[in-house]
């Protein structure tokens, strides 16, 4: 799949915190509403889980935070502990699937690129939060090119503010698209080991996880962080400028 990088055995993490390592590359935008004073999220199974990511259950394909008007562009995941059975990660290239979907079902594609869906996430984690946003499942630009996927069934609202006659066609289109996402022709599975780091485009890739069996303690532990594309592209331009300057010396 395009839009993903793997780093095996990131042993340097043991000497520094995960956010400290990322800050060497570029500054992370603080998302206080999501994480309080923490700069990284801890994904591990716990009894008082307020998010399916903190359970041992299967995670269906999704993008993170469509409840935000501007979802984070890049996600980082660092594996600290991995369960022996289950827990495999899965990714699928949402852009590629959307383009194939458009070829085979242009009517359904038009529905998913024009219908605004309500997303909501209300609760308490590091802080109280009540996030809401309207997103199209498939965002396209003025040329009709796919630019972002916004889909997380766990945070899709029970409210669906569209005319009644459009509800059934929408769900038929969404069911068809989800079927494409879960096709073995498109999805890729891998299992992270302690020390591994994965970086992926949260606007392009949908990710998920197979279920796993809970142990006596924490069975599986990943820590994650986010960065906005604006921050990343700014850093890349600065690095490119510095390289060109050195070449001219």
Tell me the number of strands.
13
The chain-level mean pLDDT equals 83
Label the structural class: alpha+beta
- Strand line-up of the largest beta sheet: 1-11-4-13-2
Percent helix, as a range, is: 25-40%
Largest sheet: 5 strands, antiparallel
Number of helices: 6
What is the 3D form? globular
Radius of gyration: 19 Å
Spans of at least 5 consecutive residues whose pLDDT stays below 50 are: 29-39
β-strand amount: 25-35%
Give the H and E element order: EHHEEEEHHEEEEHEEEEH
Question: Termini, distance in Å?
Answer: 39 Å
Pathway: Amine and polyamine biosynthesis; carnitine biosynthesis
Protein name: TauD/TfdA-like domain-containing protein
Organism: Laticauda laticaudata
InterPro entries: AlphaKG_dependent_hydroxylases, TauD-like_sf, TauD/TfdA-like
How would you describe this protein?
It holds the Pfam family TauD. Belongs to the gamma-BBH/TMLD family. GO terms for molecular function: gamma-butyrobetaine dioxygenase activity; metal ion binding. This is TauD/TfdA-like domain-containing protein. With 249 residues, the chain is α+β, with helices and mostly antiparallel strands. 27% of the residues lie in helices and 28% in strands. The chain contains six helices and 13 strands. The protein has helices at 18-25, 32-35, 94-104, 106-114, 167-181, 229-248, and strands at residues 4-7, 41-44, 59-62, 74-81, 89-93, 116-124, 128-136, 138-140, 146-149, 188-190, 197-201, 205-209, 221-227. Helix 3 (94-104) packs across helix 4 and helix 4 (106-114) packs across helix 5 (167-181). It starts with a strand and ends with a helix.
